[in-house]
Design brief:
It contains 4 helices and 4 strands. With 88 residues, the protein is an alpha+beta fold.
Length: 88
């Protein structure tokens, strides 16, 4: 299974939904809480992943590739593509 990383802030309902979805599928992931020094972390994420505009959370990374936030994660899951993406 490919590595999964999720960038979150502690007050974000979509971050919690993303974690719940990953947990419900028994997908192991590394959670990086950027609540402290949030603006700086968002700036670095934007630069690293070439994100235009405001960087939202959660930001979900699968196998080193940024897929986006909860809405994308949910669509991938509902279509069956999430399982395919996670395969090595």
């Amino acid at each position: 299974m490919k590595d999964v990383v999720i960038y979150t802030v502690d007050y974000c309902p979509y971050c919690k939904k993303a974690e719940m979805l990953l947990n419900s599928k028994n997908i192991h992931y590394k959670k990086i809480d950027i609540t402290k020094d949030e603006d700086e972390h968002r700036k670095k994420l934007g630069e690293y992943y070439d994100i235009e505009g405001r960087v939202t959370v959660p930001q979900i990374i699968i196998g080193g590739k940024r897929i986006g936030g909860f809405d994308v994660l949910e669509k991938l899951n509902n279509s069956g593509q999430l399982d395919e993406m996670l395969e090595d």
